Fold this protein.
Amino acid sequence: MKKSILALCALTLAAGLSACGGGTSSYTIGGTVVGLQYPGLVLQNNLANDLAITPLPLDGTNVRNVDYSFPNEVDYGDPYSVTVKSQPQHQNCGPSGGTADTAGRLSVISAVISCSLVSNTIGGTITGLASDGLVLTNGTSGGTVPVTKVNDVYPGTFTFALPVTYNQTYGVTVLQQPATETCSVANGAGTMGDNKVDTIVVTCVKKAT
Amino acid sequence: MIRSPLRAGLALACALSLSACGGGDGDVYVGGSVVGNSKAGLALTNNDGPRLEVPAGQSTFVFPDLVETDAGYNVKVVASPDNTEGCKVVEGTGTGKAVFSVTTVQIACTLKTYPLTARVNGRHLAGLKLVNGANSKEVPAGDTTVTVDMAPVPEDAPYGVAVLDSPGQSCTVANGSGTMTRAGATVDVTCTTP
């Protein structure tokens, strides 16, 4: 009895499978890369099958989505997992939905990879500060840094909480002077590259009394 | 027979949840989010009911009066802060039927901006670039004083103009930083050629 039930099960399973798969049992793994602006992105499926992705020319000022698919197909029921092997220049990309599953479970395989521009903090050193009140600003929209005592001493370094996106300009100036010094900024303006900026120099000199 | 105790229970649960929420004669609340609300003066109504004042800096709001499930809601801006061009209900989010509690009403306030001008005094060479943070402007070369419009700045927002690049010259900014007022602001750039 048991054996015949098993056989029946196997038969139903097979029938079910062919119904689902429509005869084919392999699947193309692919999807969309969103926000890609620079070359260098390499994707992998199951930690192999390197696939280089090239950005498309801008559509006006808009970044276009790039559709991709791996040449090697995956069999029904086999797992797939799309990951980033190499990041493009000036950007970070990562999985953003549908990148890992079992082939055939979903009617459509669409592994979305999402990229955004690198952003880095700006900051530097402060010397000669001996009173309250210093406020630094990075223009209008880059945030401000009020410099106050930390553990009872004025800090020798500062960092803006708001990072600056790649290729954007920054310009640090003194928005408010401290009570008893006059501070000036050197090396305060620049264009953001791939690394954080910690070379802005704020020098405070005691006011003549 | 089975229905009545259920109903009683439901009524009790409703009553309990109502008293927990602070009253009103409905079951669901109406609320949402605000952007650009940096000064006191924003007031909203729902279904032309009592005014709800939204304090400066607050990015969400909820009307204290609950509405009945399935009742209509219609949120309007009845007063805007005076540092804005006026606040508006984002299209398509202010009216509807409150099947569940509504948190999707969006209010957007556009801040009034004022001019930030850089006056470049005297001779300046090609390639002079000024920045106010992420806003950058290249100044064409010239032998006389020129003014350059940086991006306008909202009232009460900080600004700080710095020299990004000045090939062949040394340029400094005087009175380069401040907080924007309704009078606008002008900063002075002076370049010296070594």
